[in-house]
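WP5 quarterly update. Target: DUF922 domain-containing Zn-dependent protease. Source organism: Flavivirga algicola. Length: 179 aa.
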Amino acid sequence: MIKAFLVLSCFLCVQQDEPAMSWNASYKLSWSDFKDTPDKSTSAVAITASGITFGFSVRTSDNCVVSFTSEVYAHFYPEKSWYKKEQADIHVLGHEQLHFDITELHARKFRQRISQVKVSNSVRNELKTLHNIINKELSQMQSRYDSETNYSRNVEAQAKWDIYIANELKKLSKYKSVD
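Structure tokens (predicted):
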């Protein structure tokens, strides 16, 4: 028998000083990483707060952009993530881990797209636009994931998503977060 529960994910704009964990291929989330107090008023069993942190710098000469650099990170926010101990199990934790993996997938997609950006005076706007687009795509995939897996209750769909995300991460391994 499958327990009925609700798992939600949260995507936050956080302050620069917000404690964060960067995605790492060799580290899987544990319940001890979820530090916030659970919201007892919701049926959600766990909340994963994750998102993409992005920054860039532009070098100019004679008012012309001559180069740019960027940094993209997939982050998990322990102080904004929580779980209900009495309802959470290893299956729910796997569901939450995949939310973080989906964030990493979109960080890789973002890095790939940035690698195709040409140096120009409009590079600042192009990078900001790409950031907005990737965040929208990330949010849409996270919602689709929860919907199709029924917040992890559909075990078969969960297994399909596990395989799908693993394959997508592999395809973009050239753009993975540095461990």
